[in-house]
Amino acid sequence: MQSDHVLLIGGGHAHVAVLADWIKRGLPSKRATLLTPTQHLRYSGMVPGWIAGQYARAAGTVDLAALARRAGAELLLDKCAAIDPETRTVLTMQNGVASFDIASIDVGGVGQAARLLGDDPRLMDVRPIDAFVDQLAKDIAQLKQSTGRPAQIAVIGGGAGGVELAFALRNCRGLEYQPNIEFITGDAGLLPGFSQDVVDMVGNELSRQGMGFLGANARIEGGLIRASRTTLQDIDIIVAAMGSGAPEWPGKGGLACDADGFIAVDAHQCSISHPSIFAIGDVAARQDRVVPHSGVHAVMAGPILAQNLRAVAKGDIPKQTYHPRSNSLYLIATGDGGAIASYGRLCAKGRWVGRLKRWIDNRWISKYAKLARGG
To answer: Cβ neighbours of residue 266 under 8 Å, at least 6 residues apart?
Structure first.
């Protein structure tokens, strides 16, 4: 029997693929709703390009409202505040209670910079990405009005996201002087989990662009950034790319979560405690294997989620599993039009890699822009 109502909670990368499936194949249920606080999804992979002047601010966004409309799904512009998996209801911030038969959660993780570093008015967490872009745009506009010295920017977090932001901010367009970047990776060092050849290549490029990095954990105390024996002061902007934290409401609602608070799901992205609820992306943790919290995996797993939602909505059991490749392709933009490619132990660098990254990013955006327009 076909389910009455499928609720998509959040407009993340994987749910975009679900909406695309509904556009092509029709709704899997009598009714469907997309619950999301914004009408557009901002593709985080293009944000460094915007900072470096390669894209307009409006580029790199997917029109969720148009996709939902074409799919025949209702759009509820609101944010989930709580879930009751037993009664199959959610509480939203503004519109009260909404019920569902099947739910899928793709809201992303939450920022944890203030908790890990200490609060400070200059601190910007990259999560949520829309708030980060809004605040960074304001801060850059203020820096453009300042004259007489380069901006002093601290970037904290040594993963691929932190590296790209360090490069992008070093090459931030429109400023009178090229910013000075203080790059603090944390104790895990530069690009943990990547091959040594890639780490060396990125380190060399940082040096070429006049940046080093400090491999120590940081704290903000009394307006100063302290990392090991180094103290940084007179910093204008602090950008934190320190990975995702888990929102509290899934665990508080009774969904099974792992030790870090992420929703525990099986190989089919299905909650191990409540089979009518799926979760994917930064908010979820596979229990059958480790899948890193990365946009690469969220994008690739989206079509698999769509198939499983369709199966469950028709009364079948989910059968499809996302199997990450043994190696994933990462393209790390260097802010100057080039990029560094990483695939396992293989790496390459050059402007051609930058062109490849822009082609892949624009192709993904164009695919959903065409769907949104009715193509």
So the answer is: 272, 286, 287, 288
- Checking if the pLDDT of 138 tops 80, the result is yes
Neighbouring C-beta atoms of residue 119, cutoff 10 Å: 9
What does the pLDDT look like over 329-348, one tens digit per residue?
Answer: 999 999 999 999 999 999 99
Report CA 39 to chain centroid distance, whole Å.
16
Element housing 202 (H / E): helix 196-208
- CA distance to 97, 134, 217, 355, 362, per residue, from 54 (Å): 42, 17, 32, 11, 12
pLDDT of 1 strictly over 60 = no
Core vs surface per residue 348-357: b (16+ CB within 10 A) or e: ebeeebbebb
pLDDT band at 95 (very low <50, low <70, confident <90, very high): confident
This prediction's pTM: 0.95
Residue 200 pLDDT more than 90? yes
